[in-house]
From TrEMBL:
GO terms for biological process: gluconeogenesis; glycolytic process. It is an enzyme of class 2 (transferase). Monomer. This is Phosphoglycerate kinase.
Length: 408
């Protein structure tokens, strides 16, 4: 709205950074969850209806990972959810992309390919440095404005997030606006105790987040699940069995043990599971922690579910991020479902951080409960809640001081 009132968006060309990084089936390339794609529909429709030519950019996965793919399938899903044509070009900053941008007419929508096809996009640097990157220098002259709607990537200081706001009048999109509004309503510093339930696969990221949460005393209790729990159990000297150690080793997680141990020594209030659902020679069983675990860990066990659910009862704010087990397989979904249910039934405000957990909450019919906020963000959300500055938001604020001095 500020952009429209101050400059007018009709007839302009706008670069919109969205985050449609979605879970992908590695065998078929199918998009498994369209939550993030649907979330951006409002921003895109509104800009198109106000008469702007809308060019969308997003990343998907990381080079080397199985979910690092082209965005062509995303353009089809987006067209379908918007009920509007979304053109696609399999290029980001080359001649084909620049030509397609130049030819785009008011009201039309174009999605460029995965931003991480450009190697500069995985470098973390300052907004000023990224403003001089080839990525930003090639595209910025083709646009009048930049909009950041990618709340979920606001913790990355990458060119598509922090570079463009230095050169173009910029604004927040509707997703970013909605997230900040909801979080500021839900997140009252005096609301304690705060319980964080953390699992999922991004263990390196989660460890960094735990360091911030602890440094800022932002969490009163952390209930660890999944690989995060396994890391901390090793750090505590608990025997999780040879097979699970091998999994941690293969994923480069064992190297994190000294950092995890340091956090525990400094008093990080982190709980680990007391039992697991494991798989051993094709057989599924529950194994208690203590005597050494034989099978491969797939989910938290019933004792852990009731212990964690009990611990959530006293909370005023509960934040959940990452599944507790291998939820792609229905046999290992129970732990995650039960934790989401317990959180929803508590008296706390509940913030769900992204992806898989949003799908579980929706499938359980809990998404619209008044005490729940389903965020599009994962790592970005947690860093925000830990009180850290998010580079994406800082860059927008800098841009506003430069291009909207009358508002600052
Ligand atoms: C996320 O899913 O957390 C965001 O899309 C950021 O992705 P990244 O962790 O690969 O940078």
């Amino acid at each position: 709205d500020d952009l429209d009132e101050n400059y007018g968006v009709k007839g302009s060309k706008i670069l919109v950074r969205i985050d449609i990084n979605s879970p992908i089936d590695p065998r078929t390339g199918r998009i498994l969850d369209d939550t993030r794609i649907r979330a951006h529909a409002k921003t895109i429709r509104e800009l198109s209806e106000r008469g702007a030519a809308v060019v969308l950019i997003s990343h998907q996965g990381r080079p080397g990972e199985p979910d690092f793919t082209s965005l062509e399938p995303h353009s089809k899903v987006l067209s379908d959810r918007l009920g509007m044509t979304v053109k696609f070009v399999d290029d980001v900053i080359g001649p084909a992309a620049r030509q397609a941008i130049k030819e785009l007419k008011p009201g039309e929508i174009l999605l460029l390919d995965n931003t991480r096809l450009v190697s500069e996009e995985i470098i973390e640097a300052t907004p000023e440095k990224h403003a001089g990157s080839i990525f930003v220098q090639r595209l910025a002259p083709l646009f009048n404005y930049y909009i950041n709607d990618a709340f979920a990537t606001a913790h990355r200081s990458q060119p598509s997030i922090v570079g463009f706001p230095m050169l173009l009048p910029s604004a927040a999109g509707r997703v970013l606006e909605r997230e900040l509004h909801a979080l500021s309503k839900l997140y009252k510093p005096e609301e304690r105790p705060r319980v964080f339930v953390l699992g999922g696969g991004k263990v390196h990221d989660t460890l960094r987040i735990l360091e911030y949460l602890h440094a800022n005393r932002a969490a009163d209790r952390i209930l660890a699940t999944g690989l995060v729990a396994e890391l901390f159990m090793v750090a505590k000297g608990i025997n999780i069995g040879r097979k699970n150690i091998e999994v941690l080793e293969a994923k480069g997680i064992l190297a994190l043990v000294p950092r995890a141990r340091r956090l525990l020594l400094r008093g990080l209030p982190l709980e680990t599971p007391v039992d697991f659902v494991t798989e051993h020679n094709g057989e599924v069983r529950v194994e208690a922690v203590g005597t050494g675990i034989e099978g491969v860990i797939r989910d938290i066990g019933p004792q852990t579910i009731s212990m964690y659910s009990e611990m959530m009862k006293e909370a005023r704010l509960i934040v959940l991020r990452g599944p507790a087990g291998v939820i792609e397989d229905p046999r290992f979904r129970k732990g995650t479902e039960e934790l989401v249910k317990s959180a929803a039934e508590s008296n706390a405000y509940v913030i769900i951080g992204g992806g898989h957990l949003n799908v579980i909450a929706s499938n359980l019919g809990l998404a619209d409960k008044e005490n729940m906020h389903l965020s599009t963000g994962g790592g970005a959300l947690l860093l925000f809640l830990a009180g850290e500055d998010l580079p994406g938001l800082t860059a927008l604020a800098k841009s506003a001081r430069k291009f909207f001095p009358q508002l600052s």
